[in-house]
Structure formats: C-alpha cells, structure tokens
Predict the 3D structure of the following.
Amino acid sequence: MDYSIGKIAKETGSNVQTVRYYEKLGLMPEPWRNQAGQRRYGPNDLKRLAFIRHARSLGFSLPQIKELLSLADQPEKPCATADAIVAENLAKIRDRIHALQQLEQELKRIQACDMGNTSGSCRVIETLANHQLCLHDHHQNIESKSFV
Amino acid sequence: MDYSIGKIAKETGSNVQTVRYYEKLGLMPEPWRNQAGQRRYGPNDLKRLAFIRHARSLGFSLPQIKELLSLADQPEKPCATADAIVAENLAKIRDRIHALQQLEQELKRIQACDMGNTSGSCRVIETLANHQLCLHDHHQNIESKSFV
DNA sequence: CTTGTCCCTATAGCTGCTACAGGGTGCAAT
DNA sequence: ATTGCACCCTGTAGCAGCTATAGGGACAAG
C-alpha cells in the first residue's frame, strides 16, 4: 500500500532525482522512511506528484505550482489567485505564440534568400547579419525565460 | 574610431557582462586593450556582436551561432551547414508553436471550468489535478529547452 | 579632492532539472 | 553463504545563457 520513490517516479513519468528535488523545494512533503531510511509514499503523495507534473507540462513554474498546491491544501480560501495564475500563463503562452510566429516568418524569409552554394555567396548568413532587413521587432524577447 | 565595451554593448542592445561572456566562449575575439587594460573594439567587432544578438533574437543557440560565424569567416566554404541550421531552427519553432497552441487550448478549457469562488469549489485546481481530462498529449514537452 | 561613471577580474546565482561519485540495502539465484 | 543486480541514500557539479555581486582601478568634471 506504499510506494518507493522509484515507484511514484515511474507512475508519474518523473525521475527519482526530480522527486527529491521537489521535496527539497517544499513541493513534495518529506515522506516517512522505512527502517533502512528509504522514502515511502502513500496514494496522496502520488496524486500530488501527478498534479505537479501535469502543471509543469502545462508550463506552470514551480513557484506557481507551489501556490496552487497551497490553495488546494486550504479549500476554504478564495481561489482568485488560482484564476490569476492560469490567466497569467495563458497570456504568456499567447505572447509566446505570437513571437514565435514572427520568428517563423523571419526564418522563412531568410531561407528563401539562399542562392549561392558557398558561404561567401550564401544569402543566409548575409541576411542574418543584416538587421535592417528585419520585418519584425523581435528584439525584446531575447532574454525571455523558458516556457515550453 | 574605437569603442569601449560599454559602447558596443549599448549600440547592440547587449550588456557588458554578456559581451565578456561571448569573448570567453570564443564568439567574440579578444580585442586589444588600451594602456589601462580596457577593451577597445573596432567596427567589425560591432558588426559581429550585432550578428550574434540578431541570431540570438531569432532563437539560434550559441553553438549554432559559433558555427555560422566560422562559416562567415571562411567565405569559400560550402554553406549547406548554414542552410541546415536555419532549417533546424525553423522546424523547432514550428514544433514549439504547435505545442503552445495545444497548451493554449488546454488552459482555456481549464479557465472555462472555473465556477466557485473558494479554492475548495474552484474547478481550476481540480481540473489541473485531473490528468484524465487532458485533450492533448503535451507530456513529452516538459523538459524542452528554452527557444524564445 | 571628491564624486560619479565607467572599466577590470572572479565568482555565485537564476530555472528545472540531470548526472555522477561513492556508498548502503534487499532479494533471488547459485 | 555468497554473488549479482536493481534499487536506494547523500552531496555535489553540470547544462544554457546570461545576470548580479564583490572588491577594486581609472579618469574626468565640478
């Protein structure tokens, strides 16, 4: 009726180190240990881990997930925060899609410029070098964080 | 007729540490120094940095940019590699757009489920918890690397 | 002569893991 | 009994691509 760390990891498609990492960050509780000091988990821990992985796959950050979990732990609290977190991520995803679509256009254009077969005559590098030719202002997005 | 590190950084919208970082990685050359040991750059360095930043803004990785730069440095070489790098990034961007569009649907669905005003009755958290309800298989994308 | 702005090196931090070193544990087969 | 193998433990370092900080030097304007 209990799980080893390898078991819940496998069940949820995580890996063992990741589960320990979540524990260190306080996303997963410290589980009880068997007499040999090995972690043992119950069904709730499995659910919690599945929640985390699912939220991660939807692009939520670990701090956001921590907040969602603490809301879930206290069902009497208002959930405006959860709404806000979802909305924030949705907005971020939409921005990201938009930026990527612009990049797609830009790369297509660069690809279309290719004419020569040595890099001296190759338009790709030249086009990449020439910033003036840009159709879009994709420059503020360089340092944007990973979001799927 | 020469630039300080702060100057080329400003001109290209980079910051000073980033330029030094590129130098350490071999993307930027080691420039000459004035008598006080400060870096001095010429117009070619400025162009090179602009190229790097532009390519970064288009989502190219630093190793890819290094390759593109070495092609640009040797104009007699065939440019198939440059084509391949562009194509690779274009494919990556298209994948990414597709994945993000699926996530957008998923989050919209979650948002639409919101009914209650305490987190106990809030569908958002529940929907997030319930993986069975997923419309898409967005699970292999969790650990995908940042690409704008 | 102080204040401010730039520059220098070296190092640590960010996110979200992943991998490795160096060891212990548990169970089945020989 | 012992050998082998898969699993578990802690702690630390690495990935990308920066960014920030500490602790100092250089130089010009007021």
User: Anything to note?
Assistant: The helical segments of chain B are 5-12, 16-25, 43-57, 62-73, 80-112, 123-129. The first strand of chain B starts at residue 32 and ends at 33. Chain B touches chain A through 64 residues (CB under 8 Å).
